[in-house]
Structures are given as C-alpha cells and as structure tokens.
Amino acid sequence: MSSQFIPLMDPGRGYVAYRDEIDVAVRKVLEAGSYILGPSVTSFERSFAQWCGIAEMIGVANGTDAIELALRTLEVGSGDVVFTVSHTAVATVAAIELAGATPVFIDVDPVTLTIDPQKLEDSIIRHARSAVTGSARAVIAVHIYGHPCDLQALQQICRRHELLLIEDCAQAHGARLNGQPVGSAGDAAAFSFYPTKNLSAFGDAGAVGFPSRELADRCRTLREYGWRERYISAVGGMNSRMDELQAAILNVRLHHLQDEIDTRRRIAACYGTQLAGIVETPATLPGADHAWHLYVARTARRQSLRDSLQKQRIGTGLHYPMPVHQQPAYANRIALGHGGLAVTELAAAEIVSLPMHPFLKEDELDAVVAGIKAWHEGRVA
Ligand SMILES: *Cc1c(COP(=O)(O)O)cnc(C)c1O
C-alpha cells in the first residue's frame, strides 16, 4: 500500500515538470508590460490552430465562453434549439443558455457515452413535427472523456437537417477519428484550458476554433465588446479575453502535449489489461484515437470500490455524479430527446474515474491497480 495519497489528478506537477521553461516565459511577460491579448496570445492562437488542424483559433477566457462565443458567432441564440447531451460538464448546457438558445438533451451511446446519432436524428425529426420550443439550429457534440464522437454520422445528420455542428473539445485535445483531429469536422470547436484539462493553463483559459477567416473575425469582435475599432462597438459583445500569462504558459505546455497524451495512452493501456474482468473498462471504437482526459471505468458496486480505494489512499472521481437534466437548475425545465435518457441515467450510477494524468508515476499506477485488485478479492472492503 502506498503511503502518499494518490490523487485523481495533480495539476501542480505540471509546473514542477517544466519549471525552468515556465519561469522564463512568465518573467518575459511580466517584464514586457503587455498583459492581455498581446503577442503571446497571438502566437498561441497560431500554434494551437496548427496543432489542431483548424484554420483559425481565438484565445478566450475559459471553455464555457468558448462555447457561448461559438454559438454567438454562428448567430445561434434566442428562439433557437441546440441539441446536446445531458451526460456532460454542466458548462456545455450553461453556455447554450447564456447564448440565449434552448437546449434539448439527447441520450448517449452505451459504449462510448457520446451522443447517440440515431437518437439524435429521431429527436430532430420529432422536433420538426412538434415545433415545441423553437427552430432546430445546431448540435453540440461533446467528446466526453477524450473519446471522439461519431463525427461522420453527425456530419451527415447535420447536413441532412441543415444544422450547425459545434464540437465541445474541452476534454479531447489530441483525439482523432480515422486520423482526423477533433475540432476540425464541424462549424466551430471549443476548447478549455482549465488546470486539469489535457492542455492546461494555471488559471482559466479557453479557445474557439473556426474553419474560416470570416467567422474568426466575427468572433474576435464579439470577444472584446464588439469592437472592430478600439472604443467603438460595432455589435454588442462580451469580454472574454485571454491573458498573456496564461498564453505564455500554454505556449510552453503545447510543446509537451503530444508526449503527455502518449503517456495517458500508456496508462490507459495498462489499466485496460490489468483491470479487465474486474471492472468494466472503457472501450475505444475502431478508428478512434482516445485522448484519455479521464479514465472512466464502470461497476455496479461503485460505492464499495470508492470506499475501498479511499481507505487505500487512492483518489477517485465521478464525471459526473448527476446528469444535467436531474440537477436542480435544469430539472423538469429542459426537453428530453426522443426515447428519454435511460443510457445516461444508468451510466451516471456506475461510472468511476480512476487516477489519470501524465505525471502519474509507474509505482503510483501499480498501486492503483493493486488497490483495485485488493478490493476485488475482498482484501480491503
Ligand atoms: C471543462 C469543460 C467545459 C468548460 O470549460 P471551462 O474552462 O471550465 O469553462 C466545457 N465542456 C466540457 C465537456 C468540459 O469538460
């Protein structure tokens, strides 16, 4: 049994690992005297766009704003319906409402826990006939945990029904489907750099990507008070600027991102072999390169597993303990798609996130595996 507590994530190790590079980058910004939307932001936008295979990237204040700005840029708002999932970080849904649009929740696929394309299309067709809450405008596909959604199916459905496709990539930096990076399949892509995400700042930050210069220009205007020219608002906008400090840190960390994702993949492979038959390990569909933001296993005996691991000084998490449609702010207020959310609700009762981050040491990984085996064999209840 390990004596040090092994947390689910450990963002502070991301500083220790690159301390020298980060200290230099931070000092440069402090000395340069330009602290918001300066040269570090511009260079990060360019580098991250290239890394993602997306034409244009706009640095913003956080991932929630990135989704809201994607919607506003695409002129989705009041009177518009946006289909998304209830099995997500609440930020996805909050952003839809902040943009003035109306969310409708679609159930997820039982294997990947990403939006179920068949249920999406059934719901779109039903919505068109019922005309309940507004006109169907967009789908927000969430690449939950880092597993890519079925983008090909979603692109076809969105084309057939003339809907915009927005990708919530907050958990999926580096994920690909059949070689195509997430974020490059739709009309906009939103990223978060919250300190625990695959690419993370030491504070809040986010980015929104677009396939065209025209959309990017519109988003840049909205990002800062609707200014095209300083102090003259051409349209009503918001303040969602990225800090130079965060951008400089992100520039350093972007260089290490691919290695970190490779490490995440090695950890996931180890869990996959060691824990098969003990818990339900997450499946990766053929053609999918999972980015492993989270390693989410399933078991009907979740509470017992979590209690046992806690005793063994191993942290676990729930992503998420309550689907959005059951949370007090949203319950009985948001329409559910055709067929309801049975898969979402069952998943919420069984999922458990295991320690997963690129600085997890070999002996810590071994200790987590040993701890789960000890629970399974009834040695630590
Ligand atoms: C983290 C996250 C967000 C929001 O990002 P913030 O930077 O925290 O605002 C949105 N969607 C998903 C799926 C996330 O995991």
SSE diagram, text form:
Elements: H1 13-17, H2 19-32, H3 39-52, E1 56-60, H4 63-73, E2 80-85, H5 90-98, E3 102-106, H6 117-130, E4 135-142, H7 151-160, E5 164-168, E6 176-177, E7 180-181, E8 188-192, E9 206-210, H8 213-223, E10 227-229, E11 232-233, H9 244-275, E12 288-289, E13 295-298, H10 302-311, E14 335-336, H11 342-350, E15 351-354, H12 362-376
Parallel strand pairs: 2-3, 2-4, 3-14, 4-5, 5-8
Antiparallel strand pairs: 1-9, 6-7, 6-12, 8-9, 10-11, 13-15
Shape descriptor: globular
Largest beta sheet: strand ordering: 1-9-8-5-4-2-3-14
Average pLDDT over all residues: 96
Largest sheet: number of strands, sense, barrel closure: 8 strands, mixed
Number of strands: 15
Task: Measure the end-to-end span.
Answer: 14 Å
Comma- or semicolon-separated keywords:
binds pyridoxal-5'-phosphate; 3-stranded antiparallel sheet; alpha/beta; 381 residues
Question: What do these coordinates show?
Answer:
The strands form four sheets. This protein has an eight-stranded mixed sheet with strand order 1-9-8-5-4-2-3-14, sandwiched between helices. A three-stranded antiparallel sheet has the order 7-6-12, with no helix packed on it. Strands 10-11 form a two-stranded antiparallel ribbon. It is 40% helix and 16% strand. The longest helix is centred in the C-terminal third of the chain and has 32 residues, at 244-275. α5 (90-98) links the parallel β2 (80-85) and β3 (102-106). The mean pLDDT is 96. It is globular and about 65 Å long. It has 381 residues and is α/β, with parallel strands linked by helices.
